[in-house]
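Help wanted!
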Amino acid sequence: MERSERGERILEVAGELLVAWGYGRVTIDEIARRAKVGKGTVYLHWKTKDALLLTVVLKAKTRALQRHLARMRADPLEVLPSRMMGAYYGDFLAEPVLRALYTDDVDVLGRLNDSSKKEFAELVALGDRVLCRHLEALREHGLMYEDTDVRHQQYALLATATGFFTAEALLFDRAPDTPEIRGGIFAESLRRMLETTPSYDAAAAAAPEIIALYEEFEARSAEEMRRQLRN
Amino acid sequence: MERSERGERILEVAGELLVAWGYGRVTIDEIARRAKVGKGTVYLHWKTKDALLLTVVLKAKTRALQRHLARMRADPLEVLPSRMMGAYYGDFLAEPVLRALYTDDVDVLGRLNDSSKKEFAELVALGDRVLCRHLEALREHGLMYEDTDVRHQQYALLATATGFFTAEALLFDRAPDTPEIRGGIFAESLRRMLETTPSYDAAAAAAPEIIALYEEFEARSAEEMRRQLRN
DNA sequence: TTCGTGACCAGATTCGAAATCTGGTCACGG
DNA sequence: CCGTGACCAGATTTCGAATCTGGTCACGAA
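Answered by r_m:
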């Protein structure tokens, strides 16, 4: 049995348990039992329980990021905030761990949020820079309005995204029926808020730089996940 | 000493205490002591502790609503979502009770949120209808885009507002400096998202109906506050 | 008679110490 | 040499006793 294969199974089980039980109730014993390994084996892979569960979350985020990259490579128009976030929205709601992260919040993730804030502060800062550069690239190619400070556009984007994710839990009883429709409203809102008339050629010109930005972010995420391992 | 004056002082003290201590730590004894009345006197005014604190919140909301009405009466352009919410944003952040309601949430308000959800379900539903009619009126006067379902516009508005309020606490470390700037970004976002080129005349034509809607809401709120009293 | 009050009660909440559980280690065995 | 589970210290839970708090109401002042 391969070491990495074993690690994958532990991660998988940990993810299921995290969603089903929530951070506080997940135990390393139960993870080991379900993954059919000894408890000590878990600690051969990750430094601590937090490191393991942080990896679960980071992995889920990375999967969404990879799908995002694939979409951008296949269709340059996916670099537009509306397209990017609309698709992200669907991915996030479909990924149970991330859905929990954005809707149930405290109950499921417990202090994992605080933990990750400290542990990943650097990564979050990089994410901020990446998004800002992304928007700047779009502006340079005439795909976004330039009559506003890019920092303000970034804040508007983040705040609006926060709103649509939070609304998922907060307004669930007065929201339009399907996630697809809500995602559509989200995308349309961002388009009107930020984007000029889309141009395929401009998007194709901007895409390489933007893709490179997210590839760097992906690499940095992978590095961060490695940093959570024992060796 | 007037009965209503006494009630006002109790409300005021209760508000201060609610913000300073949070729902769980506020006691009727302490409210009575600070308001210099007997404990039983508090119960001559309100049915329960929850009724009292619910009234504190409702009163704060009503004050913001009244300022909103005054602004609309003074300047018809204030009926535009961007203008309305931009000013609301400032008011809400300046009103400690409401600021707590939208930023600290659980810690300060405790189970008051759930309590109000049940108690004020009807009022919330009316608020929903009022907002929807408000948007419909704007559309009829050509002040908002009509190429989208009004329900979807309402959801976008609510989700975005939720986002900017939540972001106030969630993104505090990476947000633009002043509340005024953040309020400006919020307003500008809504304008681009929902509004056509503003016309004073169209706004003036739409204003009376819209003002009437919120006056009805204000009346209904006052009625609800009365319903929390003993007699 | 009317209005305000605080002593009082039941039930909720808190406290604290004992009992249990869990993250993390490491000596052992396959 | 790699995987393991018994083991330990410290964290968490339990649960009954002690305390606190929302709400009442008999009483007394006006």
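OP: Thanks! One thing I noticed: Chain A has two domains: 1-45, 57-228.
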